[in-house]
Write a structure and sequence with these properties.
mainly alpha, single chain, two-stranded antiparallel sheet, Arc Repressor Mutant, subunit A, rod-shaped, Rna Polymerase Sigma Factor, Chain: A
Length: 281
């Protein structure tokens, strides 16, 4: 049996140490037992970290540290009466911490490494103080427990706040104190205008395709080729008056088609036949 095998790690000695850790009341003895358990299970944490590293560029050493946080949580929270083995429980918390780290890594605002290390320590302290005090600890109480300035605690809390993932369906308060979905706060007006223009062009093209061929030709030469009615008349072999009449009828039909096809909220309004019939004379 290899020293790093699961059987060698999760053995009877580890089980005995876990039971002692749960029973002992002396703080120093408890800390020594926890450190002993963590050292014994550390090879298992490393295996999980290497297994979850998605790319060669993933910081495996960071994943090991994060997994170690999950291991310490497992030691502190493990209840042998719950019917779950320590290996199963530890695996769940270790992988959970690492996956959470990997998920948030890309979205997390970068901060010094020591801030993140303090963040993980602070989470454990907050949980411990909450259990002991029966309430959420103050920043001062957290700082005293961590033996660091209060402003450092505030800085870590700001990092945590900024890295929180926000659901696009989440409701947030607007400046007028009314609730609105977060996705509505992310609308790009310029992009909306671009999309609206593309949609309008598609509607116009579809409407033109529904016209009679001679009407289509007049519209396309007028608006796509920028030709005057006189030039169109020469090309088509008809009078300028006939071009004007065809254009007027085409625009009337386009107006009806576009009004029927116009999506709600789209303020696209084609020019009236009166306005455009004389524009290319």
């Amino acid at each position: 049996m290899s020293k790093g095998s699961n059987e060698a790690i999760f053995n009877e000695e580890l089980t005995d140490d876990l039971h002692q850790y749960l029973l002992v009341e002396d703080g120093l003895k408890k800390e020594q037992l926890r450190d002993k358990i963590v050292r014994q299970v550390m090879p298992y944490v490393k295996k999980i970290a290497y297994g979850l590293a998605r790319r060669s560029t993933d910081p495996v050493e960071d994943l090991i540290q994060v997994g170690n946080i999950g291991l310490m949580k497992a030691v502190e929270k493990f209840d042998p009466l719950a019917g779950t083995s320590f290996k199963t429980y530890a695996t769940y918390l270790i992988t959970g911490e690492i996956r959470h780290y990997l998920r948030d890594k890309s979205a997390m605002i970068k901060a010094p490494r020591q801030v993140y290390e303090l963040y993980y320590r602070m989470n454990m302290i907050v949980q411990k103080l909450s259990d002991d005090l029966g309430r959420s600890p103050t920043d001062l109480e957290i700082a005293e427990e961590l033996q660091c300035p209060v402003d450092k605690v505030v800085q870590v809390q700001e990092v945590e706040r900024r890295k929180q993932l926000i659901s696009l369906d989440q409701f947030v308060m607007s400046e007028s104190d009314s609730e609105t979905q977060y996705i509505e706060r992310l609308v790009d007006d310029k992009n909306q205008e671009l999309l609206m223009g593309q949609e309008n062009r598609m509607l116009v093209e579809q409407a033109i395709d529904q016209l009679k061929p001679e009407y289509q030709e007049v519209v396309r030469m007028t608006y796509f080729k920028d030709m005057s009615q006189t030039e169109i008349a020469e090309v088509m072999g008809i009078s300028q008056m006939q071009v004007s009449r065809r254009l007027r009828k085409a625009l009337d039909q386009l107006t009806i088609s576009l009004e029927d096809a116009r999506p709600e909220g789209n303020n696209f309004a084609p020019k009236s036949s009166e306005a455009v019939s004389d524009s290319k004379v």
